[in-house]
Specification:
Layout (H helix, E strand, L loop, with lengths): L10 E4 L2 E4 L7 H6 L4 E5 L2 E4 H17 L7 E4 L5 H12 L3 E4 L6 H11 L3 E4 L1 H10 L1 H6 L1 E4 L3 H8 L15 E6 L9 E5 H15 L6 E4 L6 H6 L1 H7 L2 E4 L5 H11 L3 E3 L2 H9 L13 E5 L5 H11 L3 E6 L6 E4 L13 E2 L3 E6 L12 E7 L14 E3 L4 E2 L8 E9 L5 E6 L4 E3 L2 E3 L1 H9 L4 E11 L3 E10 L7 H9 L10 E5 L21
Parallel strand pairs: 3-12, 5-6, 5-7, 6-9, 7-8, 11-12, 11-13, 13-14, 14-15, 27-28
Antiparallel strand pairs: 1-2, 3-4, 9-10, 10-20, 15-16, 16-17, 18-19, 19-22, 20-21, 22-23, 24-25, 26-27
Helix pairs in contact: 2-3, 2-7, 8-10, 11-12, 12-13
């Protein structure tokens, strides 16, 4: 688990923005300028920057008293509230490795991640304590399971003394393990350093001009490491306020945004759809928002259009991935949405479109999206790729562990520098020797009235190798016929791209980030 040699520690000035080298330092600028400003708001209360600093130190010392040392994994299965942010900062101060375990996972899925990362401590509440004690007793026998709401733990935090700020952790050593979504297979643990996790926030704050007035609202789970990078680590560098919620339903989200006067909100397409579709949600309830972010290629045009018409709020397309980590590209402020665009790269990055043999392709040519460090300007050379994949106390490098980082996504970059994501490389369906890109077929299906979600996939076929099928989600008020959908596709697609079978469902199975779980859909065609 030893990291690279420790570089000079301190903060780097980039485009008039201070970029901390370690997460321990991420609060420093706000502490120097506005220590009493509100850093976090959650359902249980709020913390100023000074209170967050003190609480993170106390929790770090309490964890150290339980034996947590540099390089140890600390797993957390907690809701979006003050505790998860405080404990994340505490773990970073010890140079330990943070592992988020999503609360929405089934017990066997949680067990698999916990077993894989082998944490010294698991931080949770009564729910996780009961699940592991009742259903998986071996976990609680081997791992120190801490109920962070327990009076004993709270007392140990209150009694903690000392400061974990010296020596500072190695910014290039392992700091977090982010498990991939597992929508098409077994999740893999992506390992990132503190330096990796800080840059997306620093670059976003600089490029979008955020300052203390930022009130960024997030209701997607902070157990997802990407979200942690886009909440406390981004907002603290602006000196703004991070507003957290567990709400996932339209009316609750709207009430929360209005009450907290949120200025920037990150929502998945399903949330945008529900807000636009619910007549009980008034357009005025989202009036405080200056920016709404959503996944670019995943956000259907029909959803984007309905949301923008109702709320008069621009939806900014984004592109990110676990291995980056987090945000890679976002649409610039003040420009209209380019069709199918997922934005332009953050200033610390550059994007290339490459062939399998590494040949760079020109504007408009389809190939694999590859992420590299910016090679000019003040951000040049700051970006580093992920450290590798976690494999039982060993970090395994592969092609993605170097630069350029091969994303496994196919796309183009147009003449204006906009990234257009076409599909996952491994999802391409080879039907009778011809490539079918699921996203292309999905865009056609999403244009049919009443369709609010769909997944196109390939199934094994004796003669063709693979055949094209689709699962379509319809609005509750609509009744659709599969034959009509197939006929609609025949008018708009080459014959080899047209789904041979379509199954219509009320809801697609989705993970916590709103991604459809493809591995659960093939069984519908048995």
């Amino acid at each position: 688990m030893a990291g690279a040699a420790i570089p000079a520690v301190g903060r780097t000035s980039v485009s008039s923005v201070w970029v901390p080298h370690t997460i321990t330092e991420v609060l420093d600028r706000a502490l120097e300028r506005t220590p009493d400003a509100v850093a976090i708001i959650g359902s249980s209360g709020q913390l100023s920057y000074a209170e967050l600093e003190d609480s993170a130190n106390a929790h770090a010392m309490a964890l150290a008293a339980r034996g947590v040392r540099t390089g140890d994994r600390v797993a957390a299965c907690l809701p979006n509230d003050l505790d998860i942010v405080v404990l994340f900062h505490a773990v970073m101060r010890l140079g330990a490795v943070w592992v988020g375990v999503n609360r929405a996972l089934a017990v066997p899925e949680k067990h698999a991640l916990i077993t894989d990362c082998g944490p010294r401590v698991l931080l949770g509440d009564e729910t996780i304590t009961e699940e592991l004690g009742t259903h998986i007793p071996s976990c609680s026998d081997l791992i120190d399971v801490v109920n962070v709401l327990d009076v004993g733990w709270r007392a140990s935090v209150t009694e903690a003394h000392g400061s974990p700020r010296a020596p500072l952790p190695d910014p290039r050593a392992p700091a977090g393990i982010a498990y991939t979504s597992g929508t098409t297979g077994v999740p893999k643990g992506v390992v990132h350093s503190q330096a990796n996790l800080l840059l997306p926030g620093a670059a976003t704050v600089a490029s979008r001009g955020y300052g203390p007035a930022l009130r960024k609202g997030d209701c997607l789970p902070l157990t997802i490491l990407n979200m942690m990078a886009l909440t406390t680590l981004l907002v603290a560098q602006a000196g703004g306020t991070c507003v957290l919620s567990e709400r996932r339903y339209a009316r609750g989200i709207a009430e929360w945004i209005e009450r907290e006067a949120i200025t920037v909100w990150n929502g998945v397409p399903a949330m945008l759809h529900d807000l636009a579709d619910d007549d009980a949600v008034s357009p005025e309830s989202l009036g405080s928002l200056a920016e709404v972010w959503s996944g670019g290629s995943d956000c259907p045009n029909v959803v984007r259009g309905a949301f923008e018409r109702k709320f008069s709020q621009r939806v900014y397309a984004t592109y990110g991935l676990t291995e980056a980590p987090s945000l890679v590209a976002i649409e610039p402020l003040g420009e209209p949405h380019a069709p199918n665009s997922s934005g332009r790269p953050l200033p610390h990055l550059k994007l290339d479109i490459l062939t399998d043999d590494g040949t760079r392709l020109g504007p408009g040519q389809l190939g694999e999206i590859c992420v590299d460090a910016a090679d000019e300007g003040p951000w040049a050379g700051l970006y580093r790729p992920m450290l590798g994949y976690w494999a039982g106390d060993v970090i395994v490098s592969d092609a993605r562990s170097g630069l350029p980082l091969r994303t496994g996504d196919l796309g183009i970059v147009d003449g204006n520098g906009n990234l257009c994501v076409r599909d996952r490389k491994k999802l391409v369906i080879v039907r009778g020797g011809a490539n079918v890109y699921p996203a292309e077929v999905e865009r056609v299906l999403m244009a049919y009235p009443g369709v609010c979600g769909c997944v196109v996939l390939g199934l094994p076929h004796d003669r063709l190798g693979q055949c094209v099928v689709a699962v379509v989600q319809v609005m509750l008020t609509q009744e659709l016929d599969a034959d009509n959908l197939i006929a609609f596709c025949r008018e708009r697609l080459a014959q080899y791209k047209v789904p041979e079978k379509i199954r219509i469902v009320d809801a697609l199975p989705r993970n916590a980030m709103g991604k459809a779980q493809r591995d659960r859909l093939a069984g519908l065609f048995n």
